[in-house]
């Protein structure tokens, strides 16, 4: 701040409700409230120097627009709501997705609000709340189902949204997804290349769309590369790590033990490794493993596991672009994207903690 602005700061009127307002910025800059408001909105008739001065003061005093006031004036909340389940937090999805979304929203007027819920409760509950209260201008949802009632409701109520995952209901809507079919197919290829023929898949819950994608890729890989499937449907990636470990230990003790493992989640892979070792066997010797992962941790901790990377941060960025694009009126079929699995080469040398 220049000296004149600093002097004004010492005499500035008290902020309303303890927070800086447009009136505060107007007093400190010597400008009118209307000019300050238009400068913050990047109005073309306001000079660049004035805009920069207003923005600098706003940043230094921690000014944030009053959402209630914005909503009254424009009918908008400037909020994007991310609806996530507790299971996604367990799988390590929440943090990188939030980072990716906020990277895109940082250059806009939108703010992110995370709405968590349990998958054991009504999945329509948080959607109905957002719709009935007008709490957001757009919504991002995940864990999509082939026939997803949330997609139907959001479409009927004309609230812009994007999904992390696809549906199979004939409705064209914005989405970003990971190619789980290709992941599973390539995982089978890599295991067969290592001489493995009896393969098992730790799969997503059967009600989710990406269960079908992953299962399709796995079974197609078995046919194309001449391998066979070992049944393992007692648990899926949503089960607790203890339940996955115990079920896999029993399988590895049995006469039907696999020699190749495909894990649909990085956290699930940890439980599978524990099950292998509890059965007195070793990954890399008695069985090879390929796992989908959202980070480098598994590759560094257990370099004997082959990993394919799913960039959740990129997913967050693409979903934010998609929902903003829909708010701006872009066609939904132009707001769809699919990311591909990235094979991670083995870590050189032993892992060190």
Automatic annotation (TrEMBL):
Ranges for domain HTH lacI-type: 20-74
Keyword Transcription regulation: yes
Pfam families reported for this sequence: LacI, Peripla_BP_3
Regions of compositional bias (Pro residues) in chain numbering: 343-353
InterPro entries found in the cross-reference section: HTH_LacI, LacI/GalR-like_sensor, Lambda_DNA-bd_dom_sf, Peripla_BP_I
Coiled-coil residue windows: none
Chain residue ranges for the region called Disordered: 1-20, 331-353
Superkingdom assignment: Bacteria
Entry keyword set: DNA-binding, Transcription, Transcription regulation
Keyword Ribosomal protein: no
Stated name of the protein: LacI family transcriptional regulator
């Amino acid at each position: 701040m220049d000296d004149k602005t600093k002097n004004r700061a010492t005499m500035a009127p008290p902020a309303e409700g303890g927070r800086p307002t447009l009136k505060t910025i107007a007093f400190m800059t010597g400008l009118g409230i209307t000019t300050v408001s238009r400068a913050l909105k990047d109005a073309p008739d306001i000079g660049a120097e004035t805009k920069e001065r207003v923005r600098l003061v706003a940043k230094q005093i921690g000014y944030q627009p009053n959402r209630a006031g914005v909503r009254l004036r424009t009918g908008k909340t400037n909020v994007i709501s991310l609806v996530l389940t507790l299971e996604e937090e367990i799988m390590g999805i929440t943090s990188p997705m939030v980072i990716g979304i906020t990277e895109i929203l940082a250059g806009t007027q939108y703010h992110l609000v995370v709405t968590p819920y349990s998958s054991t409760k009504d999945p329509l509950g948080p959607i109905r709340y957002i719709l009935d209260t007008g709490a957001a201008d757009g919504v991002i949802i995940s864990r999509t189902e082939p026939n997803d009632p949330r997609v139907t409701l959001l479409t009927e109520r004309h609230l812009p949204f994007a999904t992390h995952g696809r549906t199979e209901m004939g409705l064209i809507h914005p989405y970003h997804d990971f190619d789980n079919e290709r992941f599973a197919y390539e995982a089978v290829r890599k295991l067969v290349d290592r001489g493995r023929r009896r393969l098992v898949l730790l799969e997503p819950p059967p009600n989710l769309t990406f269960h079908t994608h992953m299962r399709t890729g796995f079974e197609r890989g078995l046919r194309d590369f001449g391998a066979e499937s070992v049944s393992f449907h007692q648990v899926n990636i949503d089960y607790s790590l203890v339940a996955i470990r115990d079920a896999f230990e029993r399988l590895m003790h049995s006469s039907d033990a696999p020699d190749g493992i495909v894990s649909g989640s990085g956290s699930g892979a940890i439980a599978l490794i524990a099950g292998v070792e509890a059965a007195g066997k070793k990954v890399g010797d008695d069985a090879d493993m390929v796992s989908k992962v959202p980070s480098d941790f598994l590759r560094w901790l257990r370099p004997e596991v082959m990993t394919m990377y799913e960039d959740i941060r990129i997913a967050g960025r693409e979903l934010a672009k998609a929902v903003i694009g829909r708010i701006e009126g872009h066609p939904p079929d132009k707001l769809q994207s699919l990311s591909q699995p990235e094979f991670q080469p083995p870590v050189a040398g032993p892992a060190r903690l």
